[in-house]
Design brief:
Largest sheet: 5 strands, antiparallel
Structural class: alpha+beta
Oligomer: single chain
Radius of gyration: 38 Å
Strand content: 35-45%
Distance between the termini: 162 Å
Number of helices: 9
Helix content: 10-25%
Number of strands: 47
């Protein structure tokens, strides 16, 4: 013991002078204490594994949850804690997860809850706050069922379709205003809602662009600070809000079940989010560009596209198309659709068929493919040679696909076009080729029809162009002779439709760069749009070959209403685009399908005009039946128009008629007063009654006036 004391004393003597005389008062710097667990979640129904497999299971869970957001990790904590029962030698089937941001934890609740971890385990996700409440739960002898929340009926999203006047609606964005209005092509627009309720509350119901859902059930307004807000019903009640900071655009699924938001940020791994509209649940998030896809300022991100029924969501990647099934948002068959060198793809408007094209590579020619989903069966492949570019255009019912092919000579100095026309409803999907010597600038199919129109000219920059009309079907007369019966020997003419491309006519010397078919078909607008264009608008009836020419200077948009009765032409500017040099021309004009101007409004700042879409419920057969009985319906509509005009006239003259009644009542009172004074008046006039007609003599005088004369020499 003495030796130890001596050794310590010697060591102290050697260190003498190295110690400070200041008293020791350690102040450790601990991280701030977290009193809230809003960044934590609990995952249950995980597999129960032995010690040997615990590390592997933890890595799988970490990989899964880190897709949602960044985990809160330290030197000795990986962001996931999985309790282990040493007595049973197995994990307990649940784990704790801690994120850095509360938003990530909230998103994880929506994305991972109900996720199929493996074939035997579907996990459940709960916020940590629920576990805290369970610790305070006391056992009771009898379970008391909580009272359900009172039922709140959702607004009637289709109430606007019940309008007795069958009017259409449109929304405009100008300055700080977002206004929804009625329009019937007969009277001035009537404001339906202008956000007055939100103005009183001091909030903006739209701060960027707005979008209608495909069937018109919802109006989505974009507020970048708050996200996307959905409005519905006859009073435009808020029916949903989706968190999407800095949102720039949205995309509804065709059946209005899902909503895709995009903030266009390259640095955000969750730039694109897909939500379920009814539940508000976040289904999945994606970065702006897919993995391995080339990025650059001049390379736009490949857009997501919905299938016609909303069952699939697809996006192009490098040499592939990634197709996700809804509502799970999992990759279809756990693998992408391989398409070597793919340049573009489009869904068919009426079937789960993908059309895609790829340019020439090495010794492989360029090709257009039609692929059925989900079977991945290749319905048709068309090989093309010396291809510079392809543009695909679908007919609205998906019956035809036109591919405008720009080809080059071997020297690549001369370019020419041809149109490849696919008939998808025919066995084997036959393809017809239409050679065009001119450059083709635009091509568009007639909605629900077999005709298409295209703009072409010898030079793409030519001031005068031609517009040609074609029909995918050719109608011919067939004469048959009756061989039996009373009509024996008589000839009968029948119209036979042959599935053969037929040129209808060409209009030459036109000033247009865009063509827009009416949704009702039959009428097409040939428009000259853009800053340097003339603004000429030509309304052409393809059936009757009638033409009406109008003008809207500097127009940059043409929008038909869903019924094809009215078309809007607009001069608009981008939101947040700074000073717009053509602000003096901002506004819109509404025209009838015959080219008659119906209404015009101008604004200092005008951003957007959108017609409210409506679902087509009538089949082609029913539409043809209506056209055959049009005279019968005309009488009904004329009667309804007269009643509506009468009601409008009565409403407009309500004040005038009230004043007229007041005046007539006053005259009637004065007549009665004069009658009561008759005896006194006769007495004052010494017995003379001025109202006695016997005191008057009546004379009739006829005057003839010659208004005009005309002499004719026989």
């Amino acid at each position: 013991m003495a030796d130890i004391d001596d050794a310590l004393a010697q060591e102290a003597a050697e260190l003498d002078g190295y110690f400070s005389d200041a008293p020791l008062d350690p102040q450790p710097k601990y991280p701030p204490l977290k009193t809230s667990f809003d960044t934590s979640i609990i995952i249950t129904n995980l597999p129960k594994v032995p010690k040997a497999k615990l590390e592997k299971l933890t890595k799988v869970v970490i990989k899964l949850v880190s897709r949602i957001g960044t985990l809160a990790t330290t030197d000795d904590f990986v962001g996931v804690s999985m309790p282990f029962d040493e007595a049973k030698g197995a994990s307990l089937g649940f784990c704790f997860v801690d994120y850095e941001a509360p938003e990530d934890a909230k998103n994880a609740l929506g994305v991972l809850d109900g996720y199929k971890f493996d074939k035997n385990h579907t996990i459940s996700v709960s916020p940590y706050a629920i576990a805290e409440k369970l610790t305070d739960l006391q056992e009771t002898e009898e379970f008391v069922e909580p009272e359900p929340a009172p039922f709140v009926e959702n607004p009637n999203a289709m109430s606007w379709l019940e309008d007795p006047s069958q009017r259409d609606q449109f929304v405009i964005r100008q300055a700080d205003e977002t206004v929804v209005s009625w329009f019937d092509a007969k009277n001035e627009p009537i404001v339906d809602y202008d956000g007055s309720r939100e103005k009183e509350a001091g909030v903006a119901w739209c701060a960027y662009y707005c979008h209608w859902s495909p069937k018109g059930s919802y109006l989505a307004t974009l507020v970048p600070q708050r996200g996307v807000i959905l409005w519905s019903g006859d009073t435009y009640e808020k029916t949903g809000r989706f968190v999407a900071p800095d949102v720039k655009t949205v995309l509804f699924s065709p059946q209005e079940d899902f909503l895709l938001t995009n903030n266009m940020r390259r640095d955000d791994q969750q730039a694109i989010k897909v939500y379920h509209i009814q539940s508000g649940k976040l289904l999945r998030a994606f970065p702006l560009y897919p993995a391995d896809f080339p990025q650059g300022e001049d390379i736009p991100p490949p857009p997501f596209q919905w299938s016609h029924d909303g069952k699939y969501l697809a996006r192009m990647g490098k040499n592939l198309i990634s197709i996700y099934s809804t509502p799970s948002m999992k990759l279809l068959d756990k693998k992408s659709l391989l398409c070597e060198g793919i340049h573009e793809f489009q869904w068919s408007p009426k079937a789960n068929v993908i059309a895609c094209w790829a340019p020439e590579q090495a010794n492989s020619p360029a090709h257009v493919d039609l692929i059925e989903i989900p079977s991945r069966k290749k319905l048709r492949q068309k090989n093309l040679f010396n291809v510079t570019n392809c543009i695909m255009v679908w007919q609205e019912d998906g019956e035809y696909l036109a591919v405008k092919v720009t080809r080059h000579t071997k020297s690549k100095k001369t370019f020419y076009n041809n149109i490849e026309l696919f008939r998808l409803n025919e066995p084997g999907v036959p393809v017809e080729m239409l050679d065009v010597k001119d450059a083709v600038m635009a091509l568009s199919f007639e909605p629900r029809g077999s005709r298409f129109a295209m703009i072409h000219a010898e030079n793409p920059s030519a001031a005068k162009v031609s517009v040609s009309f074609y029909d995918m079907n050719k109608k011919t007369e067939q004469i048959t002779v009756t061989k039996k019966g009373a009509k024996k020997g008589q000839k009968q003419k029948t119209i036979v439709t042959v599935k053969e491309l037929n040129k209808i006519r060409t209009l030459e010397g036109k000033q247009c760069n865009f063509i827009f078919w009416s949704p009702a078909g039959g009428t097409i607008m040939m428009a000259s749009l853009g800053d340097s264009a003339s603004g000429t608008l030509e309304f052409y009836d393809v059936n009757n070959e009638s033409l009406v020419i109008k003008e809207h200077y500097r127009a940059n948009q043409v929008l038909w209403d869903p019924a094809g009765r009215t078309v809007a032409t607009c001069v608009s500017q981008p939101v947040g685009g700074g000073h717009f040099k053509f602000a003096m021309d901002n506004g819109y004009i509404l025209w009838s399908f015959q080219g008659k101007q119906l209404h015009q409004e101008s604004f200092e700042t005008f951003f957007q005009f959108l017609w409210r879409p409506r679902e087509r419920l009538l089949s082609k057969k029913e539409i043809n039946n209506v056209r055959r009985n049009l005279k019968k319906y005309e009488k009904q509509f004329e009667k309804a128009d007269k009643e509506r005009q009468r009601a409008l006239y009565l409403e407009e003259t309500k004040g005038k008629r009230a004043e007229r009644k007041k005046y007539r009542d006053m005259r009637a009172e004065l007549r009665e007063l004069r009658k009561t004074q008759r005896a006194r008046r006769t007495e004052l006039q010494d017995g003379y009654d001025s109202t006695d007609e016997s005191h008057y003599t009546m004379h009739e005088l006829t005057v003839e006036t010659i208004l005009s004369t005309k002499e004719e020499v026989v």
